[in-house]
User: Fold these one by one.
Assistant:
Number 1:
Amino acid sequence: MEPQLNPAISATAASHDGPIETDAVIVGAGPVGLFQVFELGLLEVKAHIIDSLAYPGGQCIELYPDKPIYDIPAVPVCTGKELTDNLLKQIEPFGATFHLGQEVTLVAKREDGRFDLETSKGTRFVTKTIFIAGGVGSFQPRTLKVDGIEKFDGTQLHYRVRNPSQFAGKNLVIVGGGDSALDWTLNFVQDGPNKAESVILVHRRDGFKAAPASVAKMKELCEAYEMQFVVGQVTGIEEQDGQLTGVKVTGGDGVTRVVPLDMLLVFFGLSPKLGPIAEWGLNIERKQIVVDTEKFETNVPGIFAVGDINTYPGKKKLILSGFHEAALAAFGAAPYIFPDKRIHLQYTTTSPKLHKVLGVETPVFD
Amino acid sequence: MTHVVTESCIRCKYTDCVDVCPVDCFREGPNFLTIDPDECIDCAVCIPECPVNAILPEEDVPSDQLKFIKLNAELAKKWPSITKRKAALPDADEWKDRKDKLDQLIR
């Protein structure tokens, strides 16, 4: 049997050998970043695409996966999830490489005119062009705002579960009322390899955003004394010898109780932050990147910005505007990638060359 | 940048804005709402929802309301999140056209 290599692992291994040399890196896998793959693909530019989330779709998936969108041309209605799925299907022929769950940490111009680009996972690129389709920024976990808690971040305080086994056999306090909070609560309470010693769920009210079935299951486990649910907000911490020993939970009754713990897990959802993009030497105005409207290029030649993250006179943050910007940015970038090639506008209806890059048959008309 | 709830909201608190916020950045006090500037993504969806036009983008806040930028940030830290619309304050309609209500704010 042939060994099945996980492509993500191969890519990471390759990155240790040296940077990935490419023509284009797209930062952000929201709808506009995905469509940028398409527009570059038609010009025969293969792209690498990076996103801080572990899945493509950006705001469409993170903020409104199930809400209907009515203003995509020729699509009377679709959800954020459907839009993302359709775009992924549309860009399939172009074989873009996805680098998910990582943020771009460094962008620097090289002497040869290309850019060095690095991500938080250590993936390195040398690229001729960069397309920033960063939307409203990268989605980061919302933090618990309690004095002195920051120093436990990553040791006893966790905003995501990367390795569930580190919580096995521990006394856990889980804060939040969404699906992440409930799913992990159930995971750590129920028998299995990650079963915790004890689990206390804390949520500010007795109503949950999480799926009703998970909530019902959680309440069942409370009645069976397998876990505890406390209504309240974390208002302070208790520490001893540099260890977090408990949290102060102020209940709806105004009484503050100390809840002891080994590990604190907080699931307050994700909120977008502009992050390191602000440090790449780009002209930024009101948290948006200033671009021209001919090529949607920034003040740094070779770096383009498309979608919600850019600004120009008359800018409207619409997905359809982002699609237009992606098309013009691709043409604007072509001279950096193919300095000696004349780029012609071709139509997917009639161009045999485009049919070839799309991998479709050229239709025969009688 | 962020969006800011200004004086018109005081003693009205219609809460139409909180339903539409995609990032749940509204915070609720006894008779005023604020926007947490660390959470707001400037989508501007809340602006037209407010029946008293209390919400403005930070850079459009008129000079006599500038103190509300700081006030939103400060109060957002201590007030709880509100994500579902509820009834306005009982005498909201009496207060909605009144100016100079800052002394009415309950922190």
Number 2:
Amino acid sequence: MRGKEEKPLLRPGGSQNPPGRLKSWLKLCLGIAVLWFLTYVVGPFVDNLPWIKPAVSFIDDSGINTPAFYYTGVEEVGEAVNSIRNSLEYPPKEQ
Amino acid sequence: MADKTSTPSAGQDYVVIESGKTSLKDLYTKEDWMAIWMGFTILIVGLFIYLSNPPDKMQENFNKYNATMKEEAAKAPFKTIAWQQASDSKNRIRARDQSFGKTIQEFLNAPSKWTANPVEALYRSKAEADALNAPFKEAADKAKAAQEAALAKAKEAEKAAGAAAFKNADLNKKAEAEIAAWLKAKDAASKANAKVGNKPYNRLPYLLGAAIILGLFFGIGKAIMGQSFGRFFIGFFFVFALAVLAYMAEQQSTMSHYGFGFPLWAIIFGLLISNTVGTPKWVMPAVSTEYYIKTGLVLLGAEILFNKILAIGKPGIFIAWICTPITLILTYWFGQHIVKMPSKTLNITISADMSVCGVSAAIATAAACRAKKEELTLAIGLSMVFTAICMVGQPAFAKLVGMDQILAGAWMGSTIDSTGAVAAAGAFYGQKALYVAATVKMIQNILIGVIAFAVAVYWCAKVDCVPGQQVSWWEIWYRFPKFVIGFMLASVIFSIIDGSVSAEYSTAMIDQGVLRGWSRLLREWFFALAFTSIGLETNFREFGQYFKGGKPITLYVFGQAFQLCFTLLIAYIMFFIIFPEVAGKI
């Protein structure tokens, strides 16, 4: 099957002449270095700040998937909903 | 020599583009419709796989555990050991825990957690797994012994209370306290056990398999729409590899502490390539933001189960479904009239992501109002930064003022953007806080179906019109982003299925089967591919105009500050003045 006509490609990037291309690759390396610095230097430093450390240790111990953004990505939500449903459906008798 | 790379310009700006009039041909040539067919194909396959394979003796076990809880609840004025064990056993019945479910998850799960060496995310030898387990073995054994000792004490206390026919208040109180101590020891033992549960793995063959399957799946869709299958399939592996890297970054232990998820990393890695060496031209056919995002949104629709809004009774509805829309509308109004946001689509995307539930709300709203991809990126970035702050700050504040667990849970659940961060903040404060926070957040998650639909209709009928223009229903239909129909339809169909069976059955087979064991895993890959595509076709310079005057930050801070105060007030009124009996039962 012949493909539909392509949309015009975006502005050609990363200069095609050798010095420009080298500069592009240097920029990429610099970006990777910044990410490395954030992950291996800044992150651990923040983790060890006295007012952050308890929360970080707790997250590690609990194993909660903190980056999950929707309820189906978090195990604890299923557990919470079931437990609340059981509590509301079968509440202990009044004393 | 021909250019082999491309860097982005302002050419392809929109998250969702819908044009012109509708014809029958659109049904197989437009991405909106294709997303619906592809999304529903996945959902039908998932329903077939899971509904035809329920766990052994499922209904029999539900009946048994329900009978135990009923009997125990009638016997004592507290949740007895047998009640807790029955509840726990009932919660463990999940369709995705069967062998076929585990195989599916092996193919579709994200790479594993790692700390210093990224290879750990993809491969772990047996020796490495054993070395990881060894230091925690003794602690796990101790925690298990402590749990057994706590259970023995709890049994003894409950027996003593039972001997007095549960009429002695002091004995009841003691039994309740011992049961709580046992539950705590059980939780500690479970966490300690998880630390010695490291197993060897090799994720690479599964990821390669997933890449081939997803490449074929989307490639066939592209071919049906009249585009080149081959060119898409080849480029797809590059986009998929970047999506894997994004998942790996999310799983890095330090980054995961702050909830920086794959959407952020996918955009960052994409931007890094497209704005330095340029996106290779052979990759461009597979850079299809709209295609992936719309298919993912149709799958997300299935996760919007309307019956779940009753999960915590009336207070939950008031907190999540009254406070949230009020905050959303007020923030949008503030953005238009006070901050004077330069873009309505940016305003509504930030307002929705801040007031509803972060990334998922931002994706759904941005797609519904056709926001620019830079606007979606900005909204997600803001959400992730504020989520990290709130996740640490809100439980600390609650502790400082001695807030009640249920109140704190409702407050955190409704105001922290992402669900994972809500669970972490709630759990940090206490188990009741976790349960309430997670449940309120889930109810709020469901709201995005309504918000996305309302925004799509409002944009077609009002915002995209010349002032004073009357728009016909046909015109609204022409302009309406069609995939939203698939998104809503998936939600309605799954809500009907969910409502037509018992809550237990639905939890085990739909929530813990078709959704968490199938469509959610695929939906997350689709979003990862979409965000990678956004990065690969976005010019970093385009962001500058949106930051002028710090307007997005002002908007977010105002909305969040209002939501924090307003939700706290409403949660207090609901749980402690109007419906105190609900708080009492939890």
Number 3:
Amino acid sequence: MKIKKNVATSENGFIFNPATGDSFTSNSIGSEIIEAMKRGESEQEIKSAIMEKYEVSAEQLNRDWEDWILQLKEANLLEA
Amino acid sequence: MSSATGTSMTIAVTGLNANDNPGPGVAVARALKEAFGTSIKIIGLAYEALEPGIYMKSIIDCTYQVPYAADGSAALLKRLLEINEQERLNLIIPNFDAELLNFIKIGPELRLAGIETFLPDAENLAQRDKLNLNNFGALNGFDIPESRQVRDINDLWAAAEALNYPLVIKGRFYEADIVYTFDAAQKAFYRLSSKWGLPVIAQEFINGNEINVAGLGDGKGNLISAIPMRKLYITDKGKAWAGVTIEDADLVVLAERFATATKWKGGFELEIIKSKESRFYIIEINPRFPAWVYLTAVAGQNQPAALVKMSMGEYVAPLTEYAAGKMFVRYSWDGIVDIADFQQFSAFGKI
């Protein structure tokens, strides 16, 4: 599950896909996750970091993660 | 720049109609002013007294009225030679599709008078014409939506049967309507044929993202520049009112294939639909810079400036780097003009 390398993000959650010209906004956690994905961190590493930083159950995080990946796919931001 | 452009240079441009269906002249002049500053003088060539560029004095130094394309190439040549006596033109960059053939025809006489042009030949111009686009695509391996020439209602009926709805009805030179019924197709046919003449073109509708590529060919088969732009806001006339440069190597390769296949000389624009299956359909090829060509300068490849250098005999290596994510957002602005300026241009054909 790799995010496209050239996807540009900003701290305030703005996401730009230079291959298509599409732009999106996410919240700050979304932006953090994209940055981590761009650094090549695994799903497990990212989830662990979120659980350390925020108060969230593993079950809730897994549900949100699935939803998140679905959104990235729909937005054409993941490598094929 | 070479000595020719290091010193003062005078360049004429047409297409000063910076309105809601804009010609590229003001954008071309702006890109040239940015590249060459005060070392160039921009002469506007206008057909009508209300072309906004005439009054944009920070970009267009001086404007002359020229005869309409329908008056023919001899009338155009006569007028340009008169203007040349006043201005000593080095180069003309025409920016309207409908005038290009006249400029191509008089190219040798202009050159004798010391005026360069940097244009495709008449054969190239005809190849990419809307009427010939399907043949061009078939010969050169480009995906082109199927289209039919429509001269009467029987043709229109047959085209609609063959191509289905939605259907794109296009004017001979400009404008297009997307229609969903035969009634709407008829209305579009009558409107567009009365405005732009026959034939009208019925084209298969392709669903997808509208992407344009501004390009520049050196006339020897090399692509000098290509900047892809995704339309972000489209007016009811189908014109991009906002757009963003995008990074897509396949689009640059497509532009390269076009420049190589045609040995295209000068600016061009590929209008493309990227389908859901990521196929690129060329819906139109414009034989000149687009109205958004200033974006090429901002993205790092100043196409008008590169054309000027090549027209002066300078070698320009293909430009390969550009910035994705550069946007343009057009806006309306009320330029204030003294009626005396309008009267001066209307009465004397010069301001």
